[in-house]
Amino acid sequence: MTVTAFTEPEERTALRAAVAKLAGGYGRAYIEEKSRSGGRTTELWQDMGKHGYLGVSLPEEYGGGGGGISDLAAVLEEAAAAGAPLLMMVVSPAICGTVIARYGTDEQKQRWLPGIADGSFTMAFAITEPDAGSNSHNITTTATRDGDGWVLNGRKTYISGVDEADAVLVVARTADAKTGKLKPCLFVVPTDSEGFEAQRIPMEIVAPEEQFTLFIDQVRVPADTLVGTEDGGIVQLFAGLNPERIMGAAFSNGMARYALDKAVEYVKTREVWGQPIGAHQGIAHPLAKIKIELEQSRLLQQKAAALYDAGDDFGAGEYANMAKYAGGEIACNATDVAVHSHGGNGLTQEYGLASMLLAARLGRIAPVSREMILNFVGSHSLGLPKSY
Ligand SMILES: Cc1cc2nc3c(=O)[nH]c(=O)nc-3n(C[C@H](O)[C@H](O)[C@H](O)COP(=O)(O)OP(=O)(O)OC[C@H]3O[C@@H](n4cnc5c(N)ncnc54)[C@H](O)[C@@H]3O)c2cc1C
Question: Does ligand 1 lie within 6 Å of residue 126's CB atom?
Answer without folding.
Answer: yes
